[in-house]
Amino acid sequence: NYLLGVGRADCTGPVAEIPLMGYANLEQVGGGLLTRLYSRAFIVADPEDSRRVVFVSADIGMVSQKLRLEVLKKLKKKYGDLYRQDNVILSGTHTHSGPGGYFQYTLFWLTSKGLIKPSLNAIVNGIIKSIDIAHQNMKKGNLFMNRGTVENSQINRSPFSYLENPAAERSRYSSDTDKEMVMLKMVGENGQELGFISWFAVHPVSMNNTNHLVNSDNVGYASYLFEQEKNKGMLPGEGSFVAAFASSNLGDVSPNTKGPVCINTGDSCNNPQSTCPVGGAKMCMAMGPGYDMFDSTRIIGQNIYLKAKELYDEASQEVTGLLSSAHQWVNMSDVLVELNATHTVKTCKPALGHSFAAGTIDGVGAFNFTQGSVEGDPFWDGIRDQLLGEPSNETEACHKPKPILFSTGEMTWPHPWHPDIVDVQIVTIGSLAIVAVPGEFTTMSGRRLREAVKREFDSHATPGMDVVIAGLCNVYTHYIATYEEYQVQRYEAASTIYGPHTLSAYIQLYRSLARAIATNTVQELPRGPEPPVFNVSSVTLLPPLTVDRAPVNKTFGDVLKEVRQQYRVSEVAEVTFVGANPRTSAENATEHNFLTVERHNNTSDSWHIVQNDASWDTRFYWTKGLFGQSKVTIEWHIPRGTEPGVYRIRYFGHYRKRLSVIHTIAVPFEGTSSAFEITTQ
């Protein structure tokens, strides 16, 4: 028996004007909300002593060092030494449709247009709140494990890199992606269903880089379906059952199962450079199984959900045994790796290769960069040398055959561009080992890491461990490709920032953590060098939050374009209001709800909320106009099974009002559509 606790809390943050984190496309800024983002926390504690472990999966692009350090600082203040850097894992789902702005290293600081406090605070507070809820609701219970295959939900987006791995190694696997989902189910001792964590390797990029609505993508939709089913009669985001779909070794795994196609000609562009005969790499995009990105998100999310449901219902392998955790900080730019008894190699100062700028078939890059570049381009190298300085000979030699585009490890203005100090961490719950990795391991990298950790446990009298990789934990260091994949320098390899031996270094480090856990010598592990905390400027490139204005003779919340009087199921009810900047709401209300869909109850002559802004059937669009004016359009995609009756849509916002030259306040307001009828025929 363990003590178990689960919790979920909103971590959405501002849904307008903030760059979305993932595609590194500065044009892709928030313009509304499809669904809320949540932090989901799970605590497992030993009833006999003080040992406990925490796993958090948050609907964000990745966990940053800044975010992790802030969370740990708050946990220490609140709980003393109960929750620490060794026993708390923070993992991001890797949605590419969440707000950025929570980074201290300059490369991410630039692509997020600065350190955006409201965004950072929303995520920190959401994570802390989810842990608080789990902590306050600890109850005796049992853990069960299960695993199974998810079909039709992923492809390898760099198959030509994967084929560089040794044939003997590849022949041991039936696929070039890991199709296995691992499930950890939590049940209270009275049979109460608490929730689960599942791990599955897929990029949450069903929503592409043209999307401007904040959302949690395919894995978030899977969580939504599972939680809606278990928390019957509750609105989205409410109820005690918590379903986490956490990331794993998803580095080269895309959900866009139709594969890469030239969007101008319709021909396949599944070639080593991912380029098209006309228009080059910019035209090569992978499409999902649906008719648009919303539909693809639903299809992939539903596939993942259905497999999880089956694994959850049939989970019978009980997990019992000790809780352990091991953590180290490591300077990843300077690790000596012993490949064998006679041969040692080193990691490098961080650097990104030319193909980093090419992007992937899930989100293409800029200009004329292509994947698979093993030579530099004199034009771009010349510009780089002038603007940012050229890479040192030592770094160039260390990273070979990567042609360096940005020598980030040698760029320190105004702060270092990339981390040197990285977290490595393993937590064990009985026979389950959760390996928390600081980035995106490719399929084969993940397989090698899992195998090495399992072998290490085996050889120290701890056989039969189930090893699972949790992705995008603790600090973001881009990708980890295998040495062989690195040689052909597609996007994942160009983004393996510590050089060709990055994976070997991690395998060596995680083996030593596993050894310490298996031999009960964790307390003898050196802590390693503490990560730096930079005093990052609060200057951002966001548009300033100005006073909101309504058009002449109108006020905030007035309807500009009314709903129709009647709709049928699967049509879209749409209403447009005089709006205000949603950033003002994010800064002035916790867990603010922008909209409700309400149904009229004839008997009591009252309105009942049936949907909120966390629903996947509602979409909230904000359009900025001139001179502080803006519009909000709310869509309700009326789902099958909606009861006929009379409905209305409501909008809740805050407008910024000037009181004096220096003082403005946020004033709440609301707007309501006319009533409309939903009929069956």
Automatic annotation (TrEMBL):
Protein name per the record: Neutral ceramidase
Residues the entry annotates as binding Zn(2+): 94, 203, 440, 479
Keywords: Hydrolase, Lipid metabolism, Metal-binding, Sphingolipid metabolism, Zinc
An example Gene Ontology biological process: long-chain fatty acid biosynthetic process
Lineage: Eukaryota, Metazoa, Chordata, Craniata, Vertebrata
Domain Neutral/alkaline non-lysosomal ceramidase N-terminal, residue spans: 2-508
Domain of life: Eukaryota
GO molecular function, one term: metal ion binding
EC number: 3.5.1.23
Family designation: Belongs to the neutral ceramidase family.
Catalytic reactions of this protein: an N-acylsphing-4-enine + H2O = sphing-4-enine + a fatty acid
InterPro entries named among the record's database cross-references: Ceramidase_alk (IPR006823), NCDase_C_sf (IPR038445), NEUT/ALK_ceramidase_C (IPR031331), NEUT/ALK_ceramidase_N (IPR031329)
Active site per the UniProt annotation: 254 (nucleophile)
Species whose genome carries this gene: Ceyx cyanopectus (Indigo-banded kingfisher)
